[in-house]
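Forgive a beginner's question, but would it be possible to get any protein sequence you like and the tokens describing how it folds?
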Amino acid sequence: MPKYRKKPVVVEAFQWNGTYETLDDTPRWFWDARLRGAVFHFSGKMGNREAVLAIKTLEGEHKALPGDWIIRGVKDELYPCKPDIFELT
């Protein structure tokens, strides 16, 4: 089977800590995505449940937990990534 090399792409990302209280905690593009409805808070910390973000991606809605990376793609799309996968890529 043929093999192909993908171009390296530089993306913007930040590791979500479960809050987004100030611009110091999160990048401006994340706030812009929240304002346009591409990211919303799915649930709050209640008992043993953690905060969860719902992110509208090109492939549908995905959830992000505290510690996940939120990546801004080349077409200004957002998507979550687990820390171990982010580290490998």
Remarks:
- The helical segments are 28-35, 83-88.
- The longest helix spans residues 28-35.
- Residues 12-88 form one domain.
